[in-house]
Write the structure tokens for this entry.
Amino acid sequence: MEQNKSGESYILEVKNLSVSYGHVNALKGVDIKVKAGEIVVLIGANGAGKTSLLETILGVNEIKNGSIHFQGREISGDSADKIVRSGIFLVPEGRGVFSSMTVTDNLLLGAHHNLKGAKSKMDYVFSSFPILKDRKNQVAGTLSGGERQMLAIARALMSSPKMILVDEPSIGLAPKIVNDIFDILKNLNSEGYSILLSEQNVYKALKCAHRGYVMETGNIVLGAASEDLLNNPEIRKAYLGA
Amino acid sequence: MSLPLYYYLAITSIYILMTWALYLPYRVAHLHFMVVANMAISGYFGGYAATQWGWPFGLALLVGIAIGAFISFLVSFGIGDAPTFAVVIVGFTFIYITKTAIENWDVIGGTMGMFGIPVVKNLLLYVYIFVLITGFFIYRFDNSRLGRAASAKFVDRDLATSFGVNTKYLGMFLQTWAGAIGGACGVFYAFLMNSLFPDFFTFHIIGTTMTMLFLGGYTTLWGPLLAAPILWGLPLILPTGVASWKQIIYGIILIVILLLRPEGAVTRKFLRKLQVKLKLVKMA
Amino acid sequence: MEVFIAQVINGLSLGSIYVLLVTGFNLLLLVAMIIHFSFPIVVVFSMYIAWIVLGLTGNNLFLGISAGIVSAILLNIITAPMFQHIMKKRGEVDINSTMVLSMGLGMIITDFLSHSINKGFPIAFPDALTGRAEGAFLKIGIISMSRGAFLALIVGIIFVLGLFWILYKTKQGRAFRAIAEDPNGAKLVGLPILKTGFQSYALTGFLGGSTAILMAILLGSASPGLGDQLGHKVLAVSIIAGLGNLKGGLIVGLSLGILEALVQGYWTGTWSNAVAFVIMLIAILVKPKGLFGMKL
């Protein structure tokens, strides 16, 4: 695993990444790094490229230029299912749970690539999220927004990932639920999961994360520790309305 | 002129028309196979009117066109705005029902067929005039606001609505027009061959016209114009052994085109490039 | 009254076959995301292969049946890359192109059968397979069923149950349903889309091949035109039930079978088919999106 000057290792390294959809350049030479055991947040307006970046890391988009390294190994160009098997899982924007399938089935989908030990993983997930256990035979479409977010996160855990990508977890959720979700993410992080998330709720995200990157129209314009970002006057003006 | 050449020119013109009849509704992604049923119905009507009631060709043609248009118009109330697969199955069903009705109706010849339809002098001329008129109107349509809306609807229905066009009426219009052309083809065919058999109006016509439409290119009217004579002419110059595998060859051509060049030989991009080259030649 | 009951029972057997075909069609639609118009023609092709092998091996039932099933699976798997290529090319799913591709395949197979096998004449399956000579296989009071009808019904039930088991209790089935609901979402959770689509081709190939054998037993004969006819009915059933609606397909398929059997019982001639088509035509014109709603 690549090590920086102070000897820490990066679990994810994105170098000079460029992605286009037809004529639209969604990502223009993006550089970000995530250290093992960190929570890093991507901030930016709609259309800044946050989702594109996360989905490209997952292997969904074609890379025009640049590279992605995970745990020291290059994964640029790998297919999504191969990347999931390597240890990255995405919690998509809008939850992405399958409404017509039960909670249990949704969870099992997370473990699709390795069903061995799925039972014990589900027990672990149910003990962390008792609400899901209560609803385990219910169809996911009947769950509330917050419960669905929990399901999406739990589903990610079922794949025993090393790193979890979370796309806009707070969208459409009440403030109290958003707090719960961020607590869950912090707990997961303390259990050893590295997390890269994109968020519009800048304040809560920065309070939860170690570091953050600011994106604007496909570029990274700033990358710093979250306290520095919170205290940065331009950031405060642009994203915190202060 | 020689007989084979006469038939070749006449039949390819009819196929050009039938492919155009398929082309028009496909501008909004409808594969309106019902035009084959229109062809059968109007063809039999024209033949019957001429042999039993002594109608002249012109009258039979006009009424045949009207019948084709009318039937398609009625049906389009249901499928003017339907998804493509619904249009397809309605077309197939109509063809099947029509064929069954013809086969079981001895008055019009049943499975034995209808004979004795009178010969028309200058039929080839009339067909060509019809081709020119139809082609002209299709050209006008394609370059009109309606035509552009149709292209939009092919891509995305809501996009078409933003043109201020009612997608259902557009679908109905195209299907009715296609039905009219189908009806005309039926009458032309009846008076060309002077006889009709239900076996002709089978899915072979669908296969042939579909291959013509997709090989030539379904985004412009020139595609079918080019593809019909070539595809029809090819089996004629091949040895008869190979020629009997016509449908299989058409099927293979269709698949290859879909895989390699889905928009067909003559696409809008191709036409634009051609226009640019012609301009350069003119200037030089 | 006896005629009525007898025909309803026959109709259920015929209906089971429609249900199997529609379910295969729907699976391909939902999981492989194609409209495989000519899926029933592939099935008829397997019937022919089974007939050929039966002829070559002196009516060896095991070989004949296996040949039928394997040929369907192979044909599906060989044509799968073509469909998947078209879909990838268009960026998003272009269902119309897959329909046209399927029709092209159908043209080739139908014409091949018309030309090359038995000189285009209908083929008849030997009594060893159909059990025709044995007379009624099952007799309960006034109800009597031929072996073919009985098998079609039983196997139909078993397969439909088996299919639902696969869909709801296995890993592949979960993947099928996920892709059917949301192909993009399925990709985002790392489900292998192409591989799973491929599996659905194999599964429906097996389904189609088995249906071919059942049809051979039930109908006793086949012709090149059978594929077209069957294809239109299956497509119509699927549309009327609502494209992709498995449970709807079950109901409409059985209903069509019963309807056709009743019409055949009381009305001779080719009109029985036509009546079925007329009713389907009306249903589609009135509700183009299907009676039970599309799951597309």
Summary: The two ends of chain B are 40 Å apart (CA to CA). The CA atoms of residues 147 and 213 of chain B lie 18 Å apart.
